[in-house]
Specification:
By secondary structure, this protein is of the alpha/beta class. 40% of the residues lie in helices and 17% in strands.
C-alpha cells in the first residue's frame, strides 16, 4: 500500500488515527508546540500535562523531578506556556508544561510515535516523521482551541501549521490532509498577517503576548524535532 499522510482535528481525530499510523505529529502553534520547540532546541526536556488541576500538576512534577511551569500571566521571568519565556531555559532543565490542548493530545498517542510540530520546525519534523515511519502512514493532528462550552474550535493557525508539515512531507494526502496543505500553500506571503489577525492571534496580542505570536511565525528556523519518549519531549 502507498504511504499516506492523514489529518483530523483534535482528540477525536487523534483517536480515530492513532492505531492506523506509525507517527503522530501534534500541531498547537499558539502556543504549546512552539513552546516545546523553543525549549527542546535549547536542550531542555518538556513533560506535557493536562491543564486544569494545579495540585495534581505540582504532585506530578515533584514525582518526575521536574519544575512546574507557571501560568502564562505569572510574569517575573518564570517559565510558562509563553514561548518567549523559554528562550533562556537552560539545557538539562526538566519542565512540566500543562496546556489545555497540545499536552492532552501528546499523552494520548497510544502505540504511535509522537512528535511536536509547528511552523518553526515544519521541515525538520517532516523529515524525522518520514524516517521514523519507515514507509508506514503518518498523521498530522491540528489541536484546535475550545469554545466556552468546551466544544472544539478549529483554529486557523493550527490548520496552517499542519499544512506546512504536510507540504514538507510530500506524501499522497487524504482529502483532509490535502485541504490543510492547500490552505498553507494558498496563504503564501500573507501567512503572518492571517495568523496575527485570526482569533487566537488577536487574543494573544490583546493579552500582551505579541512576541509569542512573532516567535511562532518564524517559519522553518528550527532544526529540532521534539519526540515524546517516556512521557517527555526531548531532542
Amino acid at each position: 500500500m502507498t504511504q499516506t499522510v492523514h489529518s483530523e482535528w483534535g482528540m477525536a481525530g487523534l483517536e480515530s488515527l492513532r492505531d492506523r499510523v506509525a507517527v503522530l505529529v501534534i500541531v498547537d502553534v499558539l502556543s504549546f508546540s512552539t513552546a516545546v520547540d523553543v525549549a527542546v532546541s535549547r536542550g531542555a526536556v518538556i513533560l506535557p500535562f493536562p491543564y486544569g488541576d494545579a495540585a495534581a500538576a505540582q504532585a506530578a512534577a515533584v514525582e518526575a523531578g521536574a519544575q512546574l511551569a507557571a501560568p502564562r500571566h505569572a510574569g517575573g521571568g518564570q517559565f510558562s506556556l509563553s514561548p518567549r519565556s523559554l528562550t533562556t531555559i537552560a539545557a538539562g532543565t526538566r519542565l512540566m508544561l500543562p496546556s489545555p490542548n497540545g499536552s492532552r493530545l501528546s499523552l494520548a498517542g497510544g502505540p504511535a510515535t509522537v512528535l511536536a510540530g509547528c511552523l518553526r520546525n515544519a521541515r525538520t519534523v517532516a523529515r524525522q516523521a518520514l524516517a521514523l515511519a519507515q514507509g508506514a502512514d503518518i498523521a498530522v493532528i491540528p489541536a484546535g482551541e475550545r469554545w466556552p462550552d468546551g466544544g472544539l474550535r478549529p483554529a486557523v493557525e493550527d490548520l496552517l501549521g499542519t499544512g506546512a508539515i504536510i507540504d514538507a512531507l510530500g506524501l499522497p494526502p487524504t482529502p483532509e490532509a490535502r485541504t490543510a496543505r492547500d490552505a498553507y500553500r494558498s496563504a503564501g506571503t500573507d501567512l503572518a498577517d492571517i495568523i496575527r489577525g485570526c482569533r487566537s492571534g488577536q487574543e494573544l496580542i490583546g493579552w500582551g503576548y505579541a512576541d509569542d505570536v512573532d516567535l511562532a511565525l518564524e517559519v522553518d528556523t528550527s532544526v529540532t524535532a521534539p519526540i515524546l519518549r517516556d512521557g517527555a519531549y526531548q531532542a
